[in-house]
Amino acid sequence: MKKQFNRMRQLANQTVGRAEKTEVLSEDLLQIEKRLDAVRWVCHNSTKKLASCLQGQSGTDVEKRHKKIPLTILSSCFQEGCVALNDESLLNKVLDMCSDAESKLAMELSQLEVQMERDVLDPLNQVVEVEIPNIQKQRRQLAKLVLDWDSAKTRCNQAIKSSSLGNFPAQPGKIEALREEMDEAGVKVDLCKDQLAADMYNFVSKEGDYARHFIALLEAQADYHRKSLQVLETILPAIRSQQESWSEKPAYGTPLEEHLKCSNREIALPIEACVMMLLQNGMKEEGLFRIAAGASRLKKLKAALDCSE
């Protein structure tokens, strides 16, 4: 309690300028102290923004995270569409392959997020929440010890001055005790300062490690995009092959050669259908080619031929 009182009184005297404040840190250590705050701010903001980019549940493994990824939900939606169609149509087959692709992309994203947490977020959080706070805590402890040291020096000097002026009877025992207290406080300051300096210099030497965490982020993202591109490049040719081999293509708007090849015909379907209709019914109609067909009926017939109905 007495030490705390002396510390507060010394701080008050230093604040109003009645006592000198001892600065025990060198200029380079003071610069490192400022850098600590800047690095902590950078790492804190970076981890906060990076964590907001994660789509899965933080702290979970790959499988659990995969279930919550929006791409997985999209894959499930495509699968539900296949069940609803329940046929062998082109749309059903494409939906099934798209569902598989989205699920694989979601798995790649889940693995990326787990890797980001392990290699980037966790190390940066360690810097923000443990390494830098420990150094700053030791700095505050040093400040308290310096206050104790300054207080002991002030009281010792005042006792010596009072004794030399003869204001009070000489008290050699008390002065000696104050000197011992001052020397002991000085030793504590030196020990704490040396430990703090070692931690600060160690922090500066590890700045390259902190930078590598950000490089690891880009490397992980690059690997994710490569794997995702490989998934798409694998599935797209299969989807295109399904589409190209599908025989039920619209008759109108399709090149004649392609239409004949896909339908395995020698005469285009619209031409054959029209000729057959003329042979069956048209020969008995007068003025058949003088009167244009109704637009709605013509549109219906074209649509029916497009879907081979």
Structural notes for this entry:
The protein has 309 residues and is mainly α. It contains ten helices and no strands. The longest helix is centred in the middle third of the chain and has 76 residues, at 90-165.
Helical fraction: over 70%
Q: What's the total count of β strands?
A: 0
- In whole angstroms, the N-to-C terminal distance is 99 Å
| Shape, principal axes of CA atoms | rod-shaped
Taking Cα atoms only, what radius of gyration do you get, to the nearest Å? 42 Å
SSE order: HHHHHHHHHH
Average residue pLDDT: 82
The low-confidence runs, each spanning 5 or more residues with pLDDT under 50, are 14-19
Q: How much strand?
A: under 5%
- Described by its quaternary structure, the protein is single chain
Contiguous helical run count = 10
Content-based structural category: mainly alpha
Biggest sheet architecture = none
Per-chain topology:
Elements: H1 2-15, H2 27-53, H3 62-68, H4 70-85, H5 90-165, H6 172-205, H7 207-245, H8 256-263, H9 269-280, H10 295-306
Helix pairs in contact: 1-5, 2-5, 3-5, 4-5, 5-6, 5-7
Concise account of the structure shown:
This protein is mainly α.
What descriptive keywords fit this protein?
mainly alpha
